Structure formats: C-alpha cells, structure tokens
C-alpha cells in the first residue's frame, strides 16, 4: 500500500546547489518509490545529437510519420537502456502504470507501436534512469537536494524540457531565482 511519504507519480526538482553536476536543474518523473528504493526518469535535459528517429533507425524500426522528437537524458544509471513515459491509452506486456497519471514502458514494443501509429497518444523517450537504493532518496529529501511537486500532464507532455525545472517550481508558487544554494541548520 502506498503512503503519502512515497513519491511515485510526482516530480523531483533539483534544488540549487544539489552538489552533483549531473543533477543541476534536473526534473525527475518518479515512476516508483517504496521502502526498497526508487526509480525515476529525467525529463529536464535532452541528449544533444540524438533524435527519436535516430534511435528508431538504430533499432531497425522505420519511423514512418512519427514526429522526430528529442531523446531525454533519463539519468546516469544504464544510459543505453531506453524508456518511454506515455499516456495511459496504450499498454504493453512490461508497461507500468504510475499512480494513475502516466505509464512507463521499457521494451521495443512501445517503440514499434509509436512508429506504426498505434502507440500512445502522448509519449516521451529517454535513455537511462535515476535510481536510489533503500532509504537513499528519503535521506536526500531530508537534506538540501530535492523538492517534490505533484505530477502534472502538462509539465510532462506539453512543456519543453528546458522549461520544466522553472515551470515545476512556478506551479508550486516558488520563484527558483529566490532559492538559496545551501541549506541551513537549526
């Protein structure tokens, strides 16, 4: 059973001064978070020089009329492994529904369905993921690292990657320019 302390279906926004340059201005769509750990897909950065058509071509899938969108840097773990975050109107054998908000698929079936025009209506491709072991993300949430906001379809599917971080904070009523780089102690 999911409790309010778990972040599945929410977005993590990197706080200024997170301390890891790989996550500077990161936006992570949290796909699973429980007592055993967490997994999320980065949606705030695209991979320069790699498009969706390039990825399909490398897998011998004809792109057809599929839009040639950027591929996102999903995270530092397994950077050659692909994922698609997508709307709930399509599902494959490996599809995981994320808190009733979106789905995540990680097999070539979703790519073939998108290329053939029979896939989900909204989708976002990524390579790699962000992963945390048991209790690791919980510790980072207690320190100056991440800010969580509710999952929002518009932020995921309609906002350009380079605008997601600022819009995520703005949706929570926060101007990220006003955030401190470090956290204090009491």
Automatic annotation (TrEMBL):
Report the superkingdom from the record: Bacteria
Q: Which residues form a coiled coil?
A: none
Listed InterPro entries:
AlgH-like
The Swiss-Prot or TrEMBL record describes its family as follows: Belongs to the UPF0301 (AlgH) family.
Q: What is this protein called?
A: UPF0301 protein ACFSC3_15435
User: Which species is the source of this protein?
Assistant: Sphingomonas floccifaciens
């Amino acid at each position: 059973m999911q409790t309010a302390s778990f972040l599945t279906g929410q977005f993590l926004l990197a706080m200024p001064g997170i301390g890891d340059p790989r996550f500077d201005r990161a936006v992570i769509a949290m796909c699973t978070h429980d007592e055993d750990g967490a997994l999320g897909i980065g949606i705030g950065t695209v991979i320069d020089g790699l498009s969706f058509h390039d990825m399909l071509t490398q897998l011998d899938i004809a792109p057809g009329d599929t839009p040639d969108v950027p591929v996102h840097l999903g995270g530092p773990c397994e950077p050659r492994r692909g994922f698609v975050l997508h709307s709930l109107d399509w599902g494959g054998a490996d599809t995981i529904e994320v808190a009733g908000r979106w789905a995540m698929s990680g097999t070539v079936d979703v790519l073939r369905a998108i290329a053939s025009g029979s896939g989900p209506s909204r989708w976002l491709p990524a390579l790699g993921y962000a992963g945390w072991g048991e209790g690791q993300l919980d510790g980072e949430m207690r320190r100056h690292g991440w800010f969580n906001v509710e999952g929002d379809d518009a932020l995921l599917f309609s906002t350009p990657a380079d605008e997601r971080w600022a819009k995520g904070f703005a949706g929570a009523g926060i101007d990220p320019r006003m955030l401190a780089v470090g956290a204090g102690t009491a």
